[in-house]
Amino acid sequence: MTAAVFFGCTFIAFGPAIALFLFTIAREPLRVIFLIAGAFFWLVSLLLSSLVWFISVQISNKESAAQQKGLLIFGVVLSVLLQETFRFAYYKLLKKANEGLLALSQEETMPISIRQLAYVSGLGFGFMSGAFSVVNILADSAGPGTVGIHGDSQHYFLSSAFMTMAIILLHMFWGVVFFDACEKQRWWAVAAVVISHLLVSCLTFQNPEYVASLVPTYVVLFLMGVWAFYSAGGSLRNLKLCLTCKDKDFLLANHRSR
Amino acid sequence: MANNAEDIENNMDQQQTNTAPEPPQEASVARARSRGGSGAGGGGGGGGDAGGNSSGPEQNGQPPAARPPLVVETEEDEDEEQTLKYGAKHVIMLFVPVTLCMVVVVATIKSVSFYTQKDGQRLIYTPFPEDTDTVAERALNSILNATIMITVIIVMTLVLVLLYKYRCYKVIQGWLFLSSLLLLFFFSYIYLKEVFKTYNVAMDYFTLAIIIWNFGVVGMMCIHWKGPLRLQQAYLIMISALMALVFIKYLPEWTAWLILAVISVYDLLAVLCPKGPLRILVETAQERNEPIFPALIYSSTMVWLVNMADTDGPKRNSTEAASPQQETQQAPIASPTPSSPSQDDGGFTSNWISNQEHQLGPIQSTEETRREIQQMPSARPPPEDDDEERGVKLGLGDFIFYSMLVGKASATASGDWNTTLACFVAILIVSCLFWCHVRVFESPQKPISSQYATPLYVNRLIV
């Protein structure tokens, strides 16, 4: 375990997220604030679910391994449900705040649209979730030791990093799809988000068979990404225009000539 | 009463005057708190407060301009949106230094073991030991410690308020000077020593002396006099971090948490109660139109006030120590009439000058020509024609206490980074909420002037 492992895993886990942050969020103070608020909401949901888990572990039979495993599964499911509940609560809060601001300012446009909020809050959730998953592992990876010296998998750090990256991006996609579904009152979409979150979390029970957990996670990531892209108003035409630098709105907004 | 200096500071809204004059902003508005270390030991906090210079009457004693209602509405809407945007921008401007300070403290705690070692030493303010046999004894000791510490802080605050009220500025300045001297030289020497020990770096005393001397002297200059803005900000962050580290080391655990809790309650009381010492301080400062104790406030911008040619050039309002000199300096700003030329004209006798002027035109740059060349708005004394240039201020005490919270959390959490992260996010979010709340409720119409109150009570509830 060397500096190479530490930096490599850090950049794998947080690279895309930090890039997204730097390019799209860092310049707008309002977005930064909503990002941190999103992170805070995720934190509160984790606090609640960990409280419940802690209490249930204390009153359980600590000897029985099966019971502990059962409790773990219960804890994971509860945590996922609470996270999604808090995502919904954050959505409600943001709607109210936005409406309030709109009423106050009597203007047509809000300073930040609900779609941007969806993206930013999803990323906030993702940052916090990823940080909590991987920061302790990263701290350990910088120190002395050999991974898997007792016969465990040697790919622990690397797969944790990849899983974290997937989770962060997934949270962002879930945020976008979730808010959009709430806006349009499509509750099946909300349920789909919750179910995919449950699926990804439960896939981690396959560890240490990392192939079995990582590959499906990345498939889900890709699918959710496509869904989020379409629900955010993207299309193949948009994509083509963007990639060939012919998108007029984008160019106008960024003061570039065609 | 028309306060000239304040009007200049708040003159940004000349083109946005509303039809209704703004109510004068209250002292409860926003204040920057400071805990300048004083004297011995761990620098038991002088609970000095730096009062808020909030906006006074918004017009210069002129009747509000009559405008068609439609225009006013649009301006109000723009104002609203701008309020939100600039509020957010100012909050972010405070996030960055607070984050930096916390990062420095956490990094030090995690790497330099000195600050987490309990070598049995205690501050004189916390004489009761916490390594007792029973929990009850420990609780009792920590309550006693906290009581002593809080009493000390309250007494110091009262002393400070009294000194300020009776205009003993020299004493206050001397006190602040001494305490920053201690921080910049002694504590940073200890810090450097421990860092060298941790990383096993060999260093001779001569080099160390030169480093510490330079660091300290430049620090004193930047904080108490003039210096580049970034350097001053960096120094303020460093001394806040040093202070927080000292507190983390020398305050036993339960005492520390208790003190943090009680301080925030006290803070709230002292600021909001009509007879609270900090409120008196703030109100006195407002009456006298002085910015208080710049050495204890972190400010994100400097206010440049361009004067006429005969006084000494651009002044930095927010970074100069409050002194009687400043009052006299502020007076000429309001009425920029040229005063008499200095005695020493360097050989350019008036004869020669009039000759040149006759041939070439005016050679003395006047206020107007300078303004023209510098492309500043003419006939408008304050250079701040944009909200963005009015920065925000935050008391160093808040830096210290935020960092102390995070540092304590990371010190006691035995290698777990999740606690530190959680604490960090919680502090940011709650402070941000509070700053936004203060801002929104202070000035529904206009962006306010730049000082915030930050009691940490809500923080405690969360953390």
From TrEMBL, chain A:
Keywords linked to the UniProt accession: Membrane, Notch signaling pathway, Transmembrane, Transmembrane helix
Bilayer topology: Multi-pass membrane protein
Membrane-spanning intervals of the chain: 6-25, 32-59, 71-90, 117-139, 159-179, 186-206, 212-230
GO biological process, one term: protein processing
Domain of life of the source: Eukaryota
UniProt xrefs under InterPro entries: Aph-1 (IPR009294)
Localisation per UniProt entry: Membrane
GO CC annotations on file: gamma-secretase complex
Family as reported in the entry's similarity comment: Belongs to the APH-1 family.
Function: Potential subunit of the gamma-secretase complex, an endoprotease complex that catalyzes the intramembrane cleavage of integral proteins such as Notch receptors.
Assembly information from the UniProt record: Component of the gamma-secretase complex.
This protein's name: Gamma-secretase subunit APH-1
Record organism: Acanthochromis polyacanthus (spiny chromis)
Taxon lineage: Eukaryota, Metazoa, Chordata, Craniata, Vertebrata
From TrEMBL, chain B:
Residue stretches of biased makeup (Acidic residues): 1-10
EC number: 3.4.23.-
Protein name (database record): Presenilin
Topology in membrane: Multi-pass membrane protein
Region: Disordered, residue numbers: 1-80, 314-390
Composition bias, Gly residues: 36-54
InterPro entries, alphabetized: Peptidase_A22A (IPR001108), Preselin/SPP (IPR006639), Presenilin_C (IPR042524)
Primary location class: membrane
Family per record: Belongs to the peptidase A22A family.
Gene Ontology biological process: amyloid-beta formation; calcium ion homeostasis; membrane protein ectodomain proteolysis; Notch signaling pathway; protein processing
Comment field on protein domains: The PAL motif is required for normal active site conformation.
Function text: Probable subunit of the gamma-secretase complex, an endoprotease complex that catalyzes the intramembrane cleavage of integral membrane proteins such as Notch receptors.
Compositionally biased residues, Low complexity: 329-343
Keyword Transmembrane helix assigned: yes
Organism: Acanthochromis polyacanthus (spiny chromis)
Subcellular location: Cell membrane; Cell projection, Axon; Cytoplasmic granule; Endoplasmic reticulum membrane
